[in-house]
Design goal:
Layout: H1 2-26, H2 38-48, H3 67-81, H4 86-97, H5 112-137, H6 148-152
Helix pairs in contact: 2-3
Length: 160
């Protein structure tokens, strides 16, 4: 019973927190664009979606609310106003912060592990699983614990 009481208490606290947060969400407004030019803002967001937030690391600078991400979006906006192309902006950011700033880094010798490491781990895991299962299939039955259903049924085996 203590588990049910604990669960109900946690659920009650969660509902209270949601009720308290609801007025805050209702008062939220959509952020005003930093530029009056919607075409420029669309380009900024498209380029920002290609750049990783160096603070959050799992978000693009378009999605992040970190101060650094806002500064980088401002840099992208300013470079676009100066007439720089998307490739020039991405090159500048890569030179300044390295390949890590790119949300999709290029395939090259320094990023090989990043691109092919997960596949190698998956293949290695499957190979280990197959080897373990083969080894277990060769073991005699007495090496395994009996099932619960076998314990309930009377057996011819002597009691221990």
């Amino acid at each position: 019973m203590p588990d049910a009481v604990t669960f109900l208490t946690a659920l009650r606290r969660l509902l209270m927190a949601l009720c308290l947060a609801l007025p805050l969400a209702a008062g939220a407004k959509e952020a005003a664009p930093a530029s009056d030019d919607p075409v420029l803002e669309a380009k900024v967001m498209r380029i920002s979606a290609e750049l990783r937030c160096l603070v959050c690391q799992n978000q693009t600078i378009a999605d992040s609310h970190a101060d650094l991400a806002q500064d980088l979006r401002g840099q992208v906006r300013e470079m676009l106003r100066q007439g720089k192309s998307e490739a020039q902006i991405l090159d500048y950011m890569t030179q300044r912060y390295g390949d890590f700033v790119l949300y999709r880094p290029p395939v090259k010798s320094t990023t090989t592990l990043l691109w092919y490491g997960p596949a190698a781990l998956l293949i290695g895991g499957v190979i280990v699983l197959i080897l373990v299962l083969r080894r277990r299939s060769k073991l005699p039955d007495d090496r395994f614990e009996p099932d619960a259903a076998e314990d309930a049924a009377p057996s011819d085996a002597p009691a221990r």
